[in-house]
Every structure is written in structure tokens, then in C-alpha cells.
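note to self: the first set is below, dont mix up w the second
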Amino acid sequence: CLTPGTNKPPDRTLTVVAIVLPIILSVCVLLSCYCFRRHSAIICPNIPDPSAIFKEMMMNGNKELKTPGSLYTPVPEPIEPCRITPITENSVLQQNV
């Protein structure tokens, strides 16, 4: 870092970066591990056992599944009739004139 013929002190930025950067990274890793453990139920939720669901489906066979309450049934919307009138080439030319 010292060039011959100068009395300038060496630059300490490389040393400071070499010390501070690993400290910051280790604090971030420790903080992320703490947060991951604390919120692990949100990040990695428990997966239900699919074999229990399949066994229940197989035991019921073709019976309808029991539903708690009534399901949503949409209200039928009124349908307006759609009128389509065919147009020939002559009528299109007459409208343009």
C-alpha cells in the first residue's frame, strides 16, 4: 500500500471492510435464524397427512361428502335474447354510399 518515496500512511479501508463486513453478515445470519425459528409455522406450515384424506374418500365410496351447512348457489341472471341480422355485400355497399 506504500509507494516508495512517500511518507503517506497506508489506507485502512480494506482492513475496516475486512473486519466490518463479516460482522454484519454474521449478525444478519443470526437474526434470520432467530426469525426463521420464531415464525417457522408461517414459513413452513404443517402438511396434512394425505393418506387419511384418501382413506376417507375410499371408505365413503360414491357417497356424497357431508358438507357443513349449505353450499353457495348463484342467483340466475336474466338472459336477454340476442338478435343477429345477416348482412349481404350489397347492403354494406349501400350503407357506405
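second set (the one i keep forgetting abt)
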Amino acid sequence: MSEKRARSSACRNCRIRKRRCLTNPSDADRSCQLCKQQFIPCSLTRRIGQTRPIACADDQLSPATTSCATASYVPSDDQVLPIPPQPFLGELVDLYFRFIHDGPHTLFHKLTFLSRLAQNLVPSFLLLAMISLSSRFSTNEYFGDDPRPYALAFATAAIELLQKEMMQPSLESVQGYILISQHLGGEGDVRAKHICTGLARLHCQSLRLWDTSGMTLLEQETRRHTYLSVVITGNWSTADMSIAPVISEYPPENLGLLDEEDFLALRKRLPQHGIWTQMAKTINIFREILDIIIILSSGETLASQIHKVGLLANRLDQWERDLPARLKYSLENLTFFQEIGFGKTFLAMHIGYHHYRQLLYFPFLDPRNDNRLASECKKHAMVVSEIASQGGELVYYIIGHILVVSSSIHLHTLLLGGGDVDRARQHLLSNFDMLMKLKRHWPVIDAAGSLVILRSFQNHCRVSSLDSFVLDDWMWKFLMAQSAVLDGNR
């Protein structure tokens, strides 16, 4: 005879799925019926003082991962879930490489990672951090109606394990902190995200990841890609915190990365059209654009920064002119990179470039300033919307922030003119549609995040359209913070 447990003492799996938690008093382990049916550990069976491995369902840990995969504490129900069993685990890893990797960051050689996964050689903290991102996109019945609580549990377990790695820097710990920072940013936990990006950088510095002399091609490229990801993530994180980014330890544009397909095949050839190589050249430009926004927010006039704006615009112009023909933005080139598996990376490079330009020119939308460059801002905001609508490949949370900035520029056209009103309206609608899709996966875009901020900005425009584009304290945070949750009332 099954007994129904009180709601407060139901196991975590039943609470997430909003199911009755039924147990059989005669069962020694006290697992509930639902967990038994799904062949997963039930939180009701945990006891204080036990040591619980966090590993695949068959609990077969290789010697290479045992040291970093065992928790000597007992997590509470809300802290941890085991790594899902195969083949479902493989599905989650595939989702990560499909939707996340080579978009906001580049950390792994895919085939090597999959090989290590098959041999059970991937540290548990790294695997948990990875699936905390990819599980958001899963439609597998394992997660029931909503995978996001599971994503949170995976990340919590990864963070607990990473705490043990804090004083033991490794390439994997750097990668783990980067992955967790992406999770935290998507949750809107900006301070925790900044701490994790800081730890990634400290570990990176202690390992000198940019120094690859005497290493194999695989080791060289993986370290270089991870170092580049640390620099990129650090710049976005300091923007979130409204502080100026720091200068990189080693110039990222000098890394000498292989082209994407050559890295995948582990063959050394002269670079021809490396996407990450080109993106590395814009990192310092982005940092200097953020510096200008911070300076303007402190009360400096745009006139005092106009020379810097011109210099940065020239550098961005030169960057675009110097792009290899294969990397110019066109549907033909997009198709080429989609066919070799790097369409997302190609789009990420171009949407980043146009986002930098819409940020650079945004102050010219303020009616108090010379608005001769406002049309440039609007032109790049249009391209941002066009790129984001290409096939739904850009689905990481930072895209939500980029689209919110683009949407605010389209609102300027609708309210104050100075551009193609019909196209602005069309792109505003497409941006909103994309944001609605992104909010399914990223709480920072839902709740009090990007959508609320955009609605707040829109309402302010209706009340006072002329004042809405003044670069006040709220507005410059609006431009810089992609993870921070701003006060909806300006």
C-alpha cells in the first residue's frame, strides 16, 4: 500500500514535476514510485554523513576523474542532481555544441571532448557546468515540462565541486568557471557571474594559457581558444558591473589561431579565414567603446570624446575592409560556414561587430548632441536585427541584450523619425519575437530582465521621447549590462 507524502516532504523530482510523491513503507530505501520508474536517485534516500559521488548513472568513475568527482558532503534536495544517464547525457552534450559552443565562447576541440567523455575522463564539474547550459534547450521527457530547475541544480553541483578546484588551477577549471559564468549571466546573477569570470582569469594567469611553446597542436589550440574566451567573457562581465575592462595579459590578436575547420581536423596550415582570429582583433575596440560610455556617464560631454569616437570608427572600418572575402557578411558566406558547422560563429562575429557600432554611435541619438551620426547608429541596429533573425542559431542570452539595444534604436526612429519607419517597425517586431523565444531558456530575459527593461524604456519614450535618449545613469547601464537586472523605473 503506497502512502502519500506531505507536499513539504516530497522528493525534489516530484516537487519539480508537481506530482504526488508516493512511497512504499515496506521498501528499505524509501525511494518514491516516480523516481523508481525513471531509474533516478530519489532525494528521500539521502542521509546525513554519506559521501555521494556525482557521476554517470552507472557510477563507473575512471581513476582520472575520481579525485574531482566525489563530494564529501551531502547536498540538500535543492543543491544537486546526478549527471543523467547515457544516452541522454550524450544528447545534452550535443545540444551544448549545437547551441552554445563557438558562440559566446570557444573552449573545446569537439572530437577530443567527445572521445574523453566516452572514456569517462571528463571531470564532473566540467560536465555539470556544460549541461547546466544545454539542458535549457532539451525537450526530453526526462525533464518533464520545464528543464530550467534541472539546469539550476546542475550548475549548483558544478559550483560546489569547483570550490574544491579553487586552489588547483587547471585548463579544465578555467573552462568550468567560464561555463558557470555563462549560466549565472543567464540567470541574472551578475555578481556571482563576475566572481566566476574573475576566478577563470586568475587560473588562466597562473597557468599562462597564452604560452604554448613546446606543446602539441591540440594543446596549443585548446589553450589559446580558452584564453581568448577568458578575455572575451571578462570584457562582457566588466560591462555588466559598470566598470572599465582591464587590458589583456597577452594581445588576443596575436594568438595565431588556426582556421575553424583546420582546428577541427587538427591540421596546421596558413590561416585564411579564421573567424575567431578576426573576432580577437575587435576585443580592444570593444573595451575602448565601453570606456567612452563610462566617461560620458560621469558627466563629460560628447564633444570631449568625439575624437576618440572617430578613431574607433576608423578602426572598425579598417577591420571590416580587411576581412577576407570569405568572411564578409553575405548569405553565400553564411551558407558556406553553416555547411561546415560554423554558421553560429560566423553570425556571432558579425552581430558583435554591428553591436559595437550601435553602441559607439548611440550617444548621437541624444537630441542635445550633434545628430549627424545618428543615422549610422540606426543603420547598424538594422543589421543587428537582420543577423539575429537568420535561422535561429544565436540563442545564448547575450543576444537578448544586443536585441534590446537594437530595439531601443528602432523606437527612436518610430518616435522621432530620421530613418526608415517601416523597416524599423518590422525589425522591432522581429526583435520582440526573438526575445520571446529566448526568454524560454534564460530567466534574465524574462522576469525583471531584458523584456521588462525594454518595456520600461518604451513607456518612458511615450511620456518623454526627447529625454529618453539622454545618457543618464540608468541609460548607460542599460547599454552596458547584459546580465544585470535594472530598476524598471527610470
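remember for set 2: The two ends are 59 Å apart (CA to CA).
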